[in-house]
Amino acid sequence: MEAAMGLMRRMPPKHTETALTALLSLLPGHSSDLLSQVDQPLKVLRDGENEKEFILCEYNRDADSYRSPWSNKYHPSLEDGMLPSSELRKLEIEANDIFTIYRDQYYEGGISSVYLWEEDDKQGFVACFLIKKDGSKDAHGKRGYLNEGGWEAIHVIQVGPEQEGNANYCLTSTIMLSLTTNSDASGTFNLSGSIRRQMKADLPIEDGHLCNMGKMIEELEGKLRNQLDQVYFGKTKEMVCTLRPSPDLPSMALPENIKP
Amino acid sequence: MADEEEHQETELSDNQKIDIAKWFLLNSPPGEIQYVAKDLRSVLRDDNAYQMAASEAFPFYNKTHIISLQFPDRSGDVLVSSFSEISEDEYLDPRTAQVGKIDHVKQICTDIRPAKDEELPTPYIEEYRCALDAEVCKYVAEAYPKATRLSPQNFCNGSWRSIWNIEFMDELQTVEVRGKMQVGAHYFEEGNVQLEAQHECKDSTMFQSPDDSSFSLANIIRHHETEYMSSLETSYSNLPDSTFKDLRRKLPVTRTLFPWHNTMQFSLTRDITKELGIEK
After folding, report:
1. β-strand partners of B193
2. Which is one Gene Ontology cellular component term of this protein (chain B) (predicted)?
């Protein structure tokens, strides 16, 4: 399993799906471990009833069907597919509505879906917030800079039962992205990657689960975006500049004869 | 879960295992194939399949990544590439007129021998090659610092590959230049982010004496590589405010954090838009 994760850290992030499929076929005994530790690119289905798209994941799957958060129905239809309790469904509807606005404000496009379900043995529940955006100039790239641009965010929150007015929230967020620019003058430039982080908090229930979860997601998503931009992209840039330092930049170590 | 049932059906054939192993090896980021090989062996648990895959994937990887190997007697280095290939495990170093024998999987040069006459260019061509080599060496020494090697302990790897095809056209008295630059970088501390960039360009110059041609060719190479380097830096500096912004903004369009405390306002406005039938 460790070696499998080692391979996943080295394979190009844009080939995650192929790499995962290959590992699943080599290590069938570890399939549930692999599927829980490696996030796959998100797929989308159209809910015919609302003409709205929704995102597929393990959390809205039952057998080979996926539940739409808009109509609460399975696609393709399933007789007795698992449904959240009516109380949780109410929160799910609200979460989907609000998260749509959140997604629009940060992403200016894209698709989002939220799924809630009861924990089997515990008293709490689990929520999964998903965002998928195609930022290429042919899709939702407002500024039209990207020839290809995919962003996927997966936020899974475990919400514990109430304890003295508080609930424990444990959020695991994964971002997967790829962006490509292409021009005659500078060729193709592609950055792709994935990172995953966790965040835990005890928050007062009176603020509402949605508000608590939303704030955590907004904070961690912002942090991850910053880290990708500053740290991860920055490190690859540093690497390139080490390979071939630009003569235009003031060099760190000036030749002896230039020093005063 | 349904996974358990599927296990039984999907027993991989040897060929499938070899194909998968090759895929992993060939997709190794620059300088990381040995680490990938190590993990792959323990995932594969089939040494025969691994050896088969390695014997096919390593030579291909080494040639496409143009790895540089030191001669056992330290008299120079040999580049493993399709241009210097004499046989699958023999590569020519025209500078020292030696042929290095390569162990592809270990990525070392195990033996050297003097190149045979027929493996070397004619004296006329050699005059140009030698002059060009000298000029390009000068340029490479100034543009690419030698000390920086790959540093997997810093979770960072990268490579710059340039291939310059130079065609001396006798009749036209011109020299045609075609360049292909490929740059890769990988940072993987608690994540996995990779850069893949490439660019092709063309240029030409006059057919002159070996020294004069070499001087202007090295200048052409310097010019295009410097220009490409600065275009890479521009691509990076465009990220925060333009390219990356098309994926996700730093702040919402409202330029303030999302009002989670006050989401009722949205429910109300949504009800109104629904009622008025002006929803998107």
Report:
1. A193, B187
2. cortical cytoskeleton
* Inter-chain residue contact B197 with A22, CB threshold 8 Å: no
Contact B243 A181 (CB under 8 A): yes
Tens digits of residue pLDDT in A76-123: 999 889 999 999 999 999 999 999 999 999 999 999 999 999 987 668
The amino acid at B82: S
Contact flag A15-B228 (C-beta cutoff 8 Å): no
CATH, domain range B67-120: 3.30.1140.60
Is A225 an interface residue toward B (CB < 8 Å)?
yes
**Multiple choice CATH, B121-251, 1.10.10.60, 3.10.129.10, 3.40.50.150, 3.90.1150.210:** 3.90.1150.210
What are the domain boundaries of chain B? 11-64, 67-120, 121-251, 252-276
**Residues facing residue A163 across a β-bridge:** A166
Report CB contact under 8 Å: A7, B186.
no
Q: How far is B31 from chain A (nearest CA, A)?
A: 11
Give this prediction's pTM.
0.88
Query: Domain segments of chain A: what residues?
Result: 1-38, 85-243
Q: Which residues of A touch B234 (CB under 8 A)?
A: 186
Beta sheet of A65-67, edge-to-edge order = A61-62, A65-67, A74-75
Interface probe with A: pick from B42, B233, B260, B272, most Cβ of A within 10 Å: B260
Class of the CATH domain delimited by B11-64: alpha beta
Say which CATH superfamily domain A85-243 falls into.
Answer: F-actin capping protein, beta subunit (3.90.1150.210)
What are the pLDDT digits (tens) for B73-108?
999 999 999 999 999 999 999 999 999 999 999 999
Indicate the average pLDDT of chain A.
91
Cis peptide before A76 (omega within 30 of 0): yes
DSSP state of B41: H
Nearest to B192 among A9, A187, A247 (CB): A9
Q: Is some CB atom of chain B closer than 8 A to the CB atom of A248?
A: yes
